[in-house]
Specification:
single chain; 281 residues; alpha+beta; Helix Hairpins; SH3 type barrels; Alpha-Beta Plaits; five-stranded antiparallel beta sheet; three-stranded antiparallel beta sheet; elongated
């Protein structure tokens, strides 16, 4: 009985080995060819993308559009390579097309958000609400645009964080572009004591603005009384500068305003603490 079982197991093993050998003979060359084509194809795609990237950087094509088209080309070439490799494995083109169509439908239904991101990316390319390098604010984030691909927009925040935002959300939401106009206005409110002379204060603050090289002459810097508060006269201080100089002008104006007001004897009011002690008797 044992000998019979061992004989059956041996026969089955030999049968499996024979089938495996036949499959290796039949499909081995195809599999190796497909793997080889995949490796070589990925190398060629990388080279093609490199050439296209260099040509686009040296041409007149807008950098934002060039990067977006490069992203599309990468996906298209990769899909074509995969279909070619599957063809080498024996998949018929018509059957493969049918399978891919079915998969595309199923994936499309499952990934409607991703498809909306592709549509959003196309809208961004056409309408151009922002481009690479622009300082923008959208979806609660602010930063410089680093990359726009077919699915997402990537920005670098002032804290040097990378934020990835879906194109669908960007195209459907409010976008503030701080770079388009080329000039930004800095908004400061500086309060002084009611004892201070208004004309003198305006002259001191205006000199702080006009003495800065990065403050533009046009639009004209503005210093005006903005509000009469309980303990201070508030002045609106509005210098204009180039977008890239915004933070320099922002911080320099505050620092130099404090120094200039102190030098002129103009008080900047602040809360005082008064401690009252009751007589123990």
């Amino acid at each position: 009985m044992l000998i019979q079982e061992l004989s059956n197991v041996t026969d089955q093993s030999i049968d499996y080995l024979e089938k495996g050998k036949n499959m290796l003979i039949d499909y081995g060359p195809k599999v190796l060819s497909a793997i080889g084509l995949l490796v070589i194809g990925m190398f060629i795609i990388k080279k093609i993308l490199g050439v296209v990237k260099r040509k686009s950087e040296g041409g007149r094509l807008d950098k934002t559009i060039a990067k977006f088209l490069l992203s599309l080309l990468r996906y298209a070439l990769t899909i074509f390579l995969i279909m070619t490799c599957l063809g080498l494995l024996g998949f018929e083109s018509t059957a493969l097309a049918g399978v891919l169509a079915g998969l595309a439908l199923g994936v499309g239904l499952a990934l409607q958000g991703s498809l909306s991101n592709v549509a959003g990316g196309l809208l961004i390319m056409v309408l151009k609400p922002y481009k690479l390098g622009d300082l923008i604010e959208g979806q609660g984030e602010i930063g410089n645009v680093k990359e726009i691909d077919i699915f997402t927009t990537k920005i670098i925040t002032p804290q040097n964080k990378l934020v990835v935002i879906p194109n669908g959300a960007m195209s459907n939401g409010n976008i503030t572009n701080y770079t388009t106009q080329g000039v930004l206005k800095v908004f400061h409110t500086i309060g002084v004591s009611y004892d201070a002379d208004i004309k003198q204060t305006k002259n001191v603050l205006m000199k702080v603005l006009t003495d800065q090289e990065k403050v533009l002459d046009s639009p004209t810097p503005l210093v005006e009384v903005a509000a009469l508060n309980d303990s201070s006269v508030d002045f609106a201080v509005r210098p204009a500068c180039r977008t890239e100089d915004y933070w320099d002008v922002y911080f320099t104006t505050l620092e130099k305003a404090k120094i200039a007001l102190d030098a002129a004897g103009i008080e900047i009011p602040y809360p005082h603490s008064v401690e009252i002690q009751k007589d123990g008797n």
